[in-house]
Amino acid sequence: MTERPQRIKTVRRAIHGVLLLDKPLGWSSNDALQKAKWLLRAEKAGHTGTLDPLATGLLPLCFGAGTKFSQISLDADKAYTATLQMGVTTTTGDLEGEVLERLPVNFSPEQLNAAVAALRGEISQVPPMYSALKFEGRPLYEYARAGIAIERPSRQVTIHALEIMDWQDDKLTLSVRCSKGTYVRTLAEDLGRALGCGAHLTALRRTASGPVSVENAISLDALAALTEAEREALLRPPDALLADWPAVRLSQDEAARFLTGLRRRLNAPDQPHVRVYGQHPRAFLGGAHIQGGELIPDRLLSPQEVASLVSTEQKSEFFESVV
């Protein structure tokens, strides 16, 4: 009798940090996360905001203590390169949908510049039906696939920058820097509507999220080609997601008290967000805010997590030699 081969169980381990992943085309954010989590044998992991399968580019992945700060990346401004097909509208606002209408493309450079300028700053957007926003516990795209239209309230978003990178006939490429909650598909549709020809998104690449950039990201294929030790060496510390916050450094005694959740007196002006460190250069303790001369903890690492970051600080040096 032939014995059934035994399945080898993956042994998970506690690792802490942030991996900057360049998500491939056609992968969901969760699929990319699960692949990276498996490659690193990580116990705990999460991503920092969904990228559609159509989109590529920067997807920060958080592991262990890094997951405590994933919301910061979710709330951060984002940057994209967006490619638009002018003159064609689709049911989804991108190339995955069915064509609704084809119209001639005959706008002038002056009209294009004016339409782009009108979309800068604070604008109102109606979220698309084909989105993961939920209504009565179900994502909107499920209603859309069933042919049911749900009324969606508009919401305010901020387009910090919108620039024309390339324009060839009916193809338009834009660079976008925007606030959280912005739908670039909707931005493409609004631009097409303003120019009287319609438009849809054919490609989207996230280039930045808060202080981190796709220039420092690694692909799944490149990650898979590394040894496990090399993969772990690519992890940046959790404070990578807070790099644009002011830093506060505490003495050893004050750091120990702060880690217990106690407020500390601080001679500093009020700040909505600061990152806090102990005496060791990599002893990141967590995030806080300063109000009325007090340093008030918001999200803290455990002493064990802090110790882990300090003992593995040299690993980040490997990053530059790989990416």
Which labels suit this protein?
Pseudouridine synthase, Archaeosine Trna-guanine Transglycosylase, Chain: A, domain 4, 323 residues, alpha+beta, five-stranded mixed β-sheet, single chain, ten-stranded mixed β-sheet, 33% strand, disordered C terminus
**Which overall shape is indicated by the principal axes computed on the Cα atoms?**
globular
Distance between the termini: 50 Å
Q: Provide the CATH top-level class of the domain at 78-209.
A: Alpha Beta
Measured as a percent range, the helix fraction is 10-25%
The overall pLDDT, averaged over residues, is 89
Main sheet overview: 10 strands, mixed
CATH architecture of the domain at 78-209: 2-Layer Sandwich
**Secondary-structure element order, N to C:** EHEEHEEEHEEEHEEHEEEHHEHEEEEHH
In CATH terms, the superfamily of the domain at 78-209 is Pseudouridine synthase
- Strand tally is 19
Question: From the alpha-carbon coordinates, what is the Rg to the nearest angstrom?
Answer: 23 Å
Beta-strand residue fraction:
25-35%
**Structural class, from secondary structure content?**
alpha+beta
Q: pLDDT under 50 segments (min length 5)?
A: 316-323
Count of DSSP helices? 10
The CATH topology of the domain at 78-209 is Pseudouridine synthase
Active site: 52
Catalytic activity: uridine(55) in tRNA = pseudouridine(55) in tRNA
Organism: Roseateles oligotrophus
Keywords: Isomerase, tRNA processing
